[in-house]
Design goal:
Pnp Oxidase, Chain A
Length: 166
Protein backbone atom coordinates (compact mmCIF):
# COMPACT_ATOMS: atom_id res chain seq x y z
CA UNK A 1 0.00 0.00 0.00
CA UNK A 2 1.13 3.53 -0.73
CA UNK A 3 1.49 6.23 1.88
CA UNK A 4 -0.84 9.21 1.61
CA UNK A 5 -0.65 12.56 3.34
CA UNK A 6 -3.46 15.04 3.98
CA UNK A 7 -3.51 17.80 1.37
CA UNK A 8 -5.00 21.16 2.40
CA UNK A 9 -8.01 22.14 0.29
CA UNK A 10 -6.84 25.76 0.09
CA UNK A 11 -3.69 24.60 -1.74
CA UNK A 12 -5.60 22.57 -4.33
CA UNK A 13 -5.09 24.13 -7.74
CA UNK A 14 -6.04 22.22 -10.84
CA UNK A 15 -8.04 22.62 -13.99
CA UNK A 16 -11.25 20.62 -13.41
CA UNK A 17 -11.99 20.57 -17.14
CA UNK A 18 -8.88 18.48 -17.79
CA UNK A 19 -8.65 16.69 -14.44
CA UNK A 20 -12.21 15.34 -14.69
CA UNK A 21 -13.20 15.73 -18.34
CA UNK A 22 -10.00 14.53 -20.01
CA UNK A 23 -7.95 12.66 -17.39
CA UNK A 24 -11.03 11.06 -15.73
CA UNK A 25 -11.48 9.81 -12.19
CA UNK A 26 -12.67 6.73 -10.38
CA UNK A 27 -15.73 6.94 -8.14
CA UNK A 28 -15.52 4.30 -5.41
CA UNK A 29 -18.17 3.45 -2.81
CA UNK A 30 -18.87 0.63 -0.40
CA UNK A 31 -17.17 -0.67 2.70
CA UNK A 32 -14.48 -3.14 3.76
CA UNK A 33 -16.77 -6.09 2.98
CA UNK A 34 -17.73 -5.03 -0.54
CA UNK A 35 -16.99 -2.04 -2.74
CA UNK A 36 -17.11 -1.09 -6.39
CA UNK A 37 -15.51 1.55 -8.58
CA UNK A 38 -16.34 3.15 -11.91
CA UNK A 39 -14.69 5.58 -14.30
CA UNK A 40 -16.30 9.00 -14.58
CA UNK A 41 -15.71 12.12 -16.64
CA UNK A 42 -18.69 14.21 -15.49
CA UNK A 43 -18.53 16.24 -12.31
CA UNK A 44 -16.88 19.17 -10.63
CA UNK A 45 -15.77 20.95 -7.50
CA UNK A 46 -17.05 24.03 -5.75
CA UNK A 47 -18.62 25.52 -2.67
CA UNK A 48 -22.22 24.72 -1.77
CA UNK A 49 -24.12 25.01 1.50
CA UNK A 50 -21.04 26.55 3.10
CA UNK A 51 -18.90 23.48 2.36
CA UNK A 52 -16.22 22.47 -0.13
CA UNK A 53 -17.96 19.93 -2.34
CA UNK A 54 -17.51 17.57 -5.24
CA UNK A 55 -20.44 16.70 -7.46
CA UNK A 56 -20.64 13.60 -9.60
CA UNK A 57 -23.13 12.03 -12.00
CA UNK A 58 -23.87 8.31 -12.03
CA UNK A 59 -26.28 6.51 -14.36
CA UNK A 60 -29.06 4.35 -12.94
CA UNK A 61 -27.61 1.25 -14.63
CA UNK A 62 -24.20 1.46 -12.95
CA UNK A 63 -23.36 -1.08 -10.26
CA UNK A 64 -21.48 1.57 -8.27
CA UNK A 65 -24.78 3.47 -7.87
CA UNK A 66 -26.07 0.70 -5.59
CA UNK A 67 -23.10 1.32 -3.26
CA UNK A 68 -23.49 5.10 -3.43
CA UNK A 69 -27.15 4.81 -2.47
CA UNK A 70 -26.43 2.50 0.49
CA UNK A 71 -23.49 4.37 1.99
CA UNK A 72 -22.97 7.90 3.28
CA UNK A 73 -19.45 8.26 1.87
CA UNK A 74 -17.55 7.82 -1.38
CA UNK A 75 -14.16 8.66 -2.83
CA UNK A 76 -12.82 10.16 -6.03
CA UNK A 77 -9.42 8.90 -7.14
CA UNK A 78 -7.27 10.73 -9.70
CA UNK A 79 -4.24 9.30 -11.46
CA UNK A 80 -1.14 10.18 -13.37
CA UNK A 81 -1.35 7.70 -16.22
CA UNK A 82 -3.40 4.48 -15.96
CA UNK A 83 -5.63 5.59 -18.86
CA UNK A 84 -6.04 2.04 -20.17
CA UNK A 85 -7.07 0.84 -16.70
CA UNK A 86 -9.61 3.66 -16.50
CA UNK A 87 -11.01 2.72 -19.92
CA UNK A 88 -11.33 -0.89 -18.82
CA UNK A 89 -12.98 0.02 -15.49
CA UNK A 90 -15.51 2.15 -17.37
CA UNK A 91 -16.35 -0.59 -19.85
CA UNK A 92 -16.96 -3.62 -17.58
CA UNK A 93 -19.26 -4.16 -14.62
CA UNK A 94 -18.22 -5.23 -11.15
CA UNK A 95 -21.44 -7.28 -11.12
CA UNK A 96 -19.84 -9.70 -13.55
CA UNK A 97 -16.17 -9.84 -12.60
CA UNK A 98 -13.53 -8.60 -10.16
CA UNK A 99 -12.60 -5.72 -12.37
CA UNK A 100 -10.13 -4.17 -9.91
CA UNK A 101 -8.12 -7.39 -9.78
CA UNK A 102 -8.25 -7.65 -13.58
CA UNK A 103 -6.95 -4.07 -13.85
CA UNK A 104 -4.23 -4.84 -11.27
CA UNK A 105 -5.48 -2.08 -8.98
CA UNK A 106 -5.94 -2.26 -5.21
CA UNK A 107 -8.56 -1.03 -2.77
CA UNK A 108 -7.28 0.95 0.18
CA UNK A 109 -9.30 2.58 2.95
CA UNK A 110 -9.32 5.83 4.86
CA UNK A 111 -11.36 4.73 7.85
CA UNK A 112 -14.22 2.91 6.14
CA UNK A 113 -14.07 4.87 2.87
CA UNK A 114 -12.64 2.81 0.00
CA UNK A 115 -10.35 4.38 -2.59
CA UNK A 116 -7.93 3.12 -5.22
CA UNK A 117 -4.41 2.84 -3.81
CA UNK A 118 -2.59 3.48 -7.09
CA UNK A 119 -4.08 6.96 -7.41
CA UNK A 120 -2.07 10.04 -6.59
CA UNK A 121 -4.89 12.34 -5.43
CA UNK A 122 -7.90 11.18 -3.40
CA UNK A 123 -11.01 13.12 -2.39
CA UNK A 124 -12.91 11.60 0.52
CA UNK A 125 -16.53 12.73 0.49
CA UNK A 126 -19.57 12.61 2.75
CA UNK A 127 -22.77 12.44 0.73
CA UNK A 128 -24.96 15.54 1.15
CA UNK A 129 -27.56 14.98 -1.56
CA UNK A 130 -28.67 12.67 -4.34
CA UNK A 131 -30.85 14.24 -7.03
CA UNK A 132 -32.28 12.17 -9.89
CA UNK A 133 -32.08 13.94 -13.24
CA UNK A 134 -35.21 13.81 -15.40
CA UNK A 135 -36.19 15.24 -18.79
CA UNK A 136 -38.55 17.69 -17.07
CA UNK A 137 -35.48 19.46 -15.67
CA UNK A 138 -33.86 20.12 -19.06
CA UNK A 139 -33.91 23.79 -20.01
CA UNK A 140 -32.08 23.00 -23.25
CA UNK A 141 -33.78 20.20 -25.21
CA UNK A 142 -30.46 19.15 -26.79
CA UNK A 143 -29.44 17.61 -23.43
CA UNK A 144 -31.97 14.83 -24.07
CA UNK A 145 -29.62 13.34 -26.69
CA UNK A 146 -27.50 11.96 -23.81
CA UNK A 147 -30.50 9.93 -22.60
CA UNK A 148 -31.89 8.31 -25.75
CA UNK A 149 -31.90 4.92 -24.01
CA UNK A 150 -33.58 6.25 -20.84
CA UNK A 151 -30.56 5.56 -18.61
CA UNK A 152 -30.63 8.77 -16.57
CA UNK A 153 -28.09 10.08 -14.07
CA UNK A 154 -28.36 10.88 -10.41
CA UNK A 155 -26.31 13.87 -9.29
CA UNK A 156 -24.53 13.29 -5.99
CA UNK A 157 -23.10 16.19 -4.02
CA UNK A 158 -20.53 15.25 -1.42
CA UNK A 159 -18.76 17.36 1.16
CA UNK A 160 -15.02 16.97 0.70
CA UNK A 161 -13.99 15.82 4.16
CA UNK A 162 -10.34 15.22 3.30
CA UNK A 163 -7.95 15.33 0.37
CA UNK A 164 -5.08 12.84 0.34
CA UNK A 165 -1.99 13.04 -1.87
CA UNK A 166 0.77 10.56 -2.56
Amino acid sequence: MHQFQPYPANLFETNPFTKIGSDWMLITAGDKEKANTMTASWGGFGVLWGKNVAYIFVRESRYTKEFLDKKDTFSLTFFEGHKMDLKYLGAVSGRNEDKLANAHLTLNYAGDIPFIDEGNLIFLCKKLSATPITTEQFCDPSVAEFYKNGDFHTMYVGEITQILAR
